[in-house]
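QA checklist item 7 of 12: single-chain prediction sanity check.
[x] sequence parsed
[x] length recorded as 367
[x] structure emitted
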Amino acid sequence: MTQQICRWGILGTAGIARKNWKAIRLSGNACVTAVASRSQSSAQLFIDECSAQVPPGTQPAALGSYEELLQREDVDAVYIPLPTALRHEWVIRAAEAGKHVMGEKPAARNANEVREMLHACEQNQVQYMDGVMFMHSQRLPLIRSLLERQEIGTIRRIASQFSFAGDQEFRSSNIRTHSELEPYGCLGDLGWYCSRMFLWILEGQLPKQVRARILTPLQGEQSPGSVPGEFSAELEFENGISASFYNSFVTENQQWLHVSGSEGYLRVDDFVLPYHGPEVAVYVGRDKFSVDNCEFHMENHLTRHAVREYDANAVGAQEVQMIRKFSELVNTGQLDSSWPEWTLKTQRVLDACFESAQSDGAPVALS
């Protein structure tokens, strides 16, 4: 039986699209049929450079306009890595053209825009999913099983950091420091992952309220205003559970998650971009403190749990699983409403955090 193929169009040539170019090639149920940029030459350069490392099989068409891509009959789904400020328009236009949509994150400038995007997708019977790759890793079922087995007892606290130190060129010219294109700065680019992981751990439960602060603003040379360059947030959930995250464009690479429970803790050192290797791991700690008269000891009791999954460039990598899952939904016509729900909830958390930070850390409630 011939494998049904989802035909992808890439709408924009941002760097992350190169990773998904290869993921599409490795998926087994998808192919790229067209790439659009603001000029045909830019689209062709992207195709040529990607093809040199990852030959696509059939050569995709290079297009000089986004609209031209949406009108093609050989495109079933579009991947949209455009700047955040442009996603609202092009997700809606893609949906109205009958194309299924995978969009980069943050999904839009605010939750109202996300609602309009998702409404357009629902009205036109097309799938929407954001491009959070870790949601498709086999590590998540492993984490869920550890939590459900009460390996750390009752969850009380979750903390996370996702950061990298951008150089001077990044700070002055990258679109992530441009207030009109990426108004949430590091909160949007990095905080999306922390917030999503918190929501996933708590099975979709939104925080009751948040408090947040911009610790360091950044402003690119062409930007009319500043964006968060260093950001911290505190979230309060039901049942006394609290969480905090820290994001930064000025602190070097870290991407850790720590879940504290009544009987231990769970630790992931690389929850967004897995470390290079054939396994993804989770650590469970049950450290013990003992006292015997004058002897005091803190004992480290750490267990490593892992599943076989290469970090990248392999058929089982999380980004390939993401493309494969989305393409399967398109090929079968069985739309999954849980994916747009995750997107809207995550955007609502980011909106509340940004609102709090704009109000000097005042608490913002989520209904």
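[x] summary fact logged: The chain has ten helices and 17 strands.
[ ] second reviewer sign-off
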